[in-house]
Amino acid sequence: MNLKKQTNWGIIGCGDVTERKSGPAYQKTEHFTIGAVMRRDEEKARDYALRHNISKHYTDADALINDPEIDAIYIATPPDTHKYYGLKVAAAGKPCCIEKPMAPSYSDCVSICEAFENKGIPLFVAYYRRSLPRFLKIKEWIENDEIGDIRQIRWNLSKLASEKDLSKEYNWRTDATIAPGGYFDDLASHGIDLFQYLLGDIIEVGGSSGNILGLYSAKDTIAASWKHHSGITGTGNWNFGCAEREDIVEIYGRKGKIVFSVFEEMPIQLIIENNITELIIAHPENIQLYHVANIREHLAGSILHPSTGRSAAHTNWVMDKILGN
After folding, report:
1. Would you call 288 helix, strand, or coil by DSSP?
2. What angle do CA 207, 211, 213 make, to 5 degrees?
3. Which of 7, 17, 232, 316 is the most buried (most CB within 10 A)?
4. What digits encode the pLDDT tens for the residues 274-312?
């Protein structure tokens, strides 16, 4: 793709995630712009386009995908429609970024990947933590052997049931037909993908899961253990009905450990014996900014993007194994 000119992106599904996390990142990236958005609700699509200074809006995804002025597509709908729209974008021959998780199942992810690979078209997935400076610093610590040979990683993520959960108001994130693992699909996918970026692919994994609270159809309690290709072992516990929120990751090495949070902007810690190095590395205002900038560099041929369709598909494979799918 010639990036000496503007690359016009189209967004399918201009909901909450695109308001601050992602949409403005495409507009702030050099030589990128958003040329059109699509949402089934005409009024909401028009309002979004007006507020974000976007010239065109659609209620028909096919019209946006096949708009000759649109060069690339960002799919930001719930995951149950990612395959449906993704295959259409591949057929149109346009580069694409899909929100995470890539699809509700590994098999759907493989179908999407193959469609883009058969056309020789780039496919990205919005696991943007692979591009964030605070996690790149952790990767640097690991690659510089700061804690020695790594032995294991463990993650505990818990949160209170929200008012929306308790009211049993409909939420696609906890609808088992869209997200079988509920908040696990939405949240834990970020961490599992990040751990593979930091420590290499997971090759063995097992887990147990259940719906204990009965507030929605998806799973709310999940536990897992796994092994990376290097032999590093990992464990994870995710509970979405605890008395308090906790998000702690610990990577143990021969000489020390690294402690951080996947979601909270707490300091990252390098602990060696009694010496603690703490760094506060803030996220950008639009958290997908570096992820989108890396898409541009990939399309320009400067780098290989850290989050591709295949890397994201493997994250889905891990999640399927944990949930017993």
Report:
1. coil
2. 135
3. 316
4. 899 999 999 999 999 999 999 999 999 999 999 999 999
